[in-house]
Amino acid sequence: MPTLIQRVTCCCCAVFVLFAAASVSAQSRATDSTAVVATIRAFHDALGRGDSAAVLRLLAPDAVILESGDRESREEYRAHHLPADIQFARAVPSERSAVQVTVLQGVAWGSSTSVTQGNFRDRAINSAGAELMVLSRAG
């Protein structure tokens, strides 16, 4: 079984990621679920650190980002929303729920909700969000 390296592939209400795997046993699914959660955490941690290179390493070349009522390619996201997402993540703390993970043959996805409260650009922020990341195995 190849080393699990996930890449973000799509984004809905925040982010989507894609994960491909061979047929997996129950033990493999548990390991894969842990890796899915770790990848989602790594994506958010990279945003919070302002590490755009780490964010982009997690995005698959054919990533589709759905955000703010728009659809962007990986390169469009890099040029448009990524800098603002980093600024926002660094300025406004979010509380995320536990990630619910499903692993089904060659696909895994994780969903969660969040509450984000604070101030950004002289505006009070108090929002609830939902996120779905679809992941694929790289390598």
Summarize model confidence as the mean pLDDT.
Answer: 81
Number of strands: 8
Low-confidence stretches: 1-24
Helix/strand-derived category reads alpha+beta
Give the % helix.
25-40%
The shape, in one word, is globular
The rounded distance between the terminal residues' Cα atoms is: 10 Å
H/I helix tally: 4
Most strands sheet = 4 strands, mixed
Gyration radius from CA atoms, angstroms: 15 Å
| SSE string | EEHHEEHHEEEE
Structure write-up:
With 139 residues, this protein is α+β, with helices and mostly antiparallel strands. Helices cover 35% and strands 40% of the residues. A four-stranded mixed β-sheet has the order 2-1-3-4. Strands 5, 6, 7 and 8 form a four-stranded antiparallel β-sheet that branches. The model is unreliable at 1-24 (pLDDT under 50).
Topology:
Elements: E1 7-11, E2 16-18, H1 26-49, H2 52-58, E3 59-67, E4 70-73, H3 74-79, H4 81-91, E5 94-96, E6 100-104, E7 107-120, E8 123-135
Parallel strand pairs: 1-3
Antiparallel strand pairs: 1-2, 3-4, 5-7, 6-7, 7-8
Helix pairs in contact: 1-2, 1-4
Which labels suit this protein?
139 residues; alpha+beta; four-stranded mixed sheet; four-stranded antiparallel sheet; 4 helices; 40% strand
Q: How is this structure best summarized?
A:
This protein is 35% helix and 40% strand.
